[in-house]
Amino acid sequence: MRTVDLIQKKRDGHELSEEEIAFLIDGYTKGEIPDYQMAAWAMAVYFQGMTAAETAQLTMAMVRSGEQMDLSGIPGVKVDKHSTGGVGDTTSLLLVPLLAAAGVPVAKMSGRGLGHTGGTIDKLEAIPGFRTELTRDEFIDQVKAVGASIIGQSGNFTPADKKLYGLRDVTATVNSIPLIASSIMSKKIAAGADAILLDVKTGGGAFMKTLDDSIKLAQAMVAIGTEVGRETVALITGMEQPLGSSVGNALEVKEAIEALHGLGSPRLQEVALTLGSHMLVLGRKASDLAEARKTLAERITDGSALAKLKELATAQGGDASVIDDPSLLPAASRVEVIPSGEDGYVQAIEAEEIGLAAMMLGAGRPTKEANIDLAVGIVLHKGIGDAVKKGEPLAELHVNSPEPVVAEVVDRVIRAFTLSSQPVEKPPLVYAVVSKNGVERLDGVRT
Ligand code: URA
Ligand code: CA
């Protein structure tokens, strides 16, 4: 087989065979196929697309390029969750203990934040002592004993994806649905779960800006999961504004704790319950969504989900007293309130801008190597559709930065808000459910 022939075949719009795709991915991972040929192939895919069979074969070739987590020693259906990246999205911190309290084992590998989006591993490190690096055996044993564990990615998972994603980033080939879908699904499949729930964000703060593109990406990922025997369901959820009220690591832990008390941002609560209900059904612990939602609501009101978070934190070396008393979490030296300059209704809050503003305060990483400040961030006091009076707080900044930086961030947050003189309808939280049965468009709850 010659690489140049495979590039030409794809360039001319033909379907590659499983052997041909494996040849490209193995050769590229081993360094036998050079970057320039792989770049040419990626560009051919960008223009010609891939069939569902090719996309699944590419995914599995990338899965086979490295280690795979073996969760078979853990009884039950293991369900993983992936979000395409949001702002103020603390759902994982809430869902992991909630699902574990409802009997679904969760063995979760999570990432750190980059750019305007946050990462679960950074948030967990706001709990003093919390160890996000466990050995494989510690990880598996904890899921067996406690029902859940969350660790950072370590080890050699999907090296082919790492290399190819890096190449796509500098050759203008990131934005291809089969390449994105196979990249995300290869990492989830290598992480070992039996079933996968995807939270595909749509809107200004998301990777996919339009509902149609978000649905296409979700369909591609569900098709891969179905093809390779990992049941996959995707929800399309809104990122027209940050999901919860808090953006910043310790602030988001505090918000997750509030949510496990049944308090705090109704948007976060609603999206978490919707995602969680699907996960409970995928995990075979509920026969339908209504039953699942009832079970999860009970695990919140009876305190067992919160108790599970404490158990999880303690098992990983964390100081669970911060969960009883969130005022013990890392706190910023000052709080700067941002008042509204006018009366009106909130029409938009650019999520990406809020994420970048929090990053400027030190809550997020401009580059992979940057250090972050766990204490700082932004708390929004208003969401889309809320009425606001002149002088009322739009948001507050939790800061440790010098004054000129704070002034710049204040400006940025004010600019992220658009106010209207007319009442504004709240956007839907969940737009669609994509499963092997097709696409169900919703116009459900708006809170
Ligand atoms: N996220 C990924 O992991 N891969 C992509 O290709 C795009 C977004
Ligand atoms: Ca604006």
Number of helices: 17
| Shape label | globular
Query: Approximately how much helix is present in the residues?
Result: 40-55%
Unreliable residue runs: none
Q: Termini separation (Å)?
A: 56 Å
Rg of Cα set: 22 Å
Number of strands: 14
Major sheet, described briefly?
5 strands, mixed
Secondary structure category: alpha+beta
Beta-strand share of residues: 15-25%
Mean pLDDT: 95
Give the distinct bound molecules. uracil, calcium ion
What spatial order of strands do you see in the largest sheet?
A: 1-4-5-13-14
Kindly describe this structure.
This protein is of the alpha+beta class. Helices cover 45% and strands 16% of the residues. It has helices spanning 3-11, 18-30, 35-48, 52-64, 91-101, 120-124, 136-146, 159-169, 177-190, 211-227, 249-260, 266-282, 289-301, 304-315, 321-324, 351-361, 403-416, and strands at residues 79-83, 106-110, 148-152, 195-202, 231-238, 246-247, 334-339, 344-349, 377-380, 387-388, 393-399, 417-420, 430-435, 438-441. The strands form 4 sheets. It has a 5-stranded mixed beta sheet with strand order 1-4-5-13-14, with helices on both faces. It has a 4-stranded antiparallel beta sheet with strand order 6-9-11-7, sandwiched between helices. A hairpin with a 2-residue loop joins β13 (430-435) and β14 (438-441). The structure holds uracil (URA) and calcium ion (CA). The site of uracil (URA) has 6 residues, from α9. Residues 415, 418 line the site of calcium ion.
